[in-house]
Amino acid sequence: MPPEERTASEKADFKRELTDVVPHLRAFARGLCGRADMADDLVQETLLKAWAAQERFQPGTSMRAWTFVILRNAYLTDMRRNRFRGEYDETVAERVLTAPAGQEEPIHLSDMHRALLTLPPERREALLLVGAGGFSYEEAATICDCAVGTIKSRVGRARAALNAMLADGNIPKRSIGDDAAHRAILEELDDVAAGQGSSRS
Amino acid sequence: MTSHTPRNPQRQPASGSPAASSGSGKEKDPDWANGLKQLYDSVVEEPLPDSFQDLIDKLDSNS
């Protein structure tokens, strides 16, 4: 079915839904790339792309899932262009640290965020989608364009890695501080990108 | 009966955690799992910078 030009009312609906998901896009982007300013750049890029592609959005389906796909693809593209190094934003996590109340010994969210950023990107995004964003495995698989079993495996590995790091207190100071690590991540990104269809269409 | 998480006093977090319902209760979430949600939710709840509303307002005029 060829896409049709949207009416003014449909565009208004689209825009409202798009506006509603911006906070979620920011949260997902922040988890992916770790730095607030870069994350927000990524969200702005996503909004522009989503608007330009609005004919492909099926009204009634999840705007959050649809825009997450766009954001994810933009992130992968930018990451491969070396724009993001997954640097850790200390100020964000410190602010978050004040959040929990009534807990004896809260996990230090700054540690958690740093540990999260050490994960390979495809595991990090899987854990973010399922563990933080509340998506089902099936929805996460759709967003990442992979099999449900693959998502389950990635989430499982991510959880195991975080368990190990957080239980032992063995968290790297800098997540992607050296060239070797960064290169390894880029190679993994190639694998991730190769597993999906064209990211531009 | 040895403790498998020596660092944690196995104390329940004070009740009333808003994000406690995880749907699948098969396995106990580790302590950091709630932190992951907090990290995400804390960004969701941040006031939106003006730049986003500005950009959204401009979308129409560009088309």
Automatic annotation (TrEMBL), chain A:
Pfam family, one: Sigma70_r2
Start and end residues of each RNA polymerase sigma-70 region domain: 21-83
InterPro entries reported for this sequence: RNA_pol_sigma-70-like, RNA_pol_sigma-70_dom, RNA_pol_sigma70_r2, RNA_pol_sigma70_r4_t2, RNA_pol_sigma_r2, RNA_pol_sigma_r3/r4-like, WH-like_DNA-bd_sf
RNA polymerase sigma factor 70 region 4 type domain span: 112-162
SUPFAM superfamilies, sorted: Sigma2 domain of RNA polymerase sigma factors, Sigma3 and sigma4 domains of RNA polymerase sigma factors
Keywords: Sigma factor, Transcription, Transcription regulation
Keyword Transcription included in the entry's annotation: yes
PANTHER family in alphabetical order: RNA POLYMERASE ECF-TYPE SIGMA FACTO, RNA POLYMERASE SIGMA FACTOR RFAY-RELATED
Protein name: Sigma-70 family RNA polymerase sigma factor
Source taxonomy: Bacteria, Pseudomonadati, Pseudomonadota, Alphaproteobacteria, Sphingomonadales
Automatic annotation (TrEMBL), chain B:
Residues annotated as domain Anti-sigma factor NepR: 30-62
Region (Disordered) residue spans: 1-36
Domain of life: Bacteria
InterPro entries: NepR (IPR041649)
Coiled coil: none
Pfam family, any one: NepR
Feature: compositional bias, Low complexity: 13-24
Biased composition regions of type Polar residues, renumbered to the chain: 1-12
Name assigned to this protein: Anti-sigma factor NepR domain-containing protein
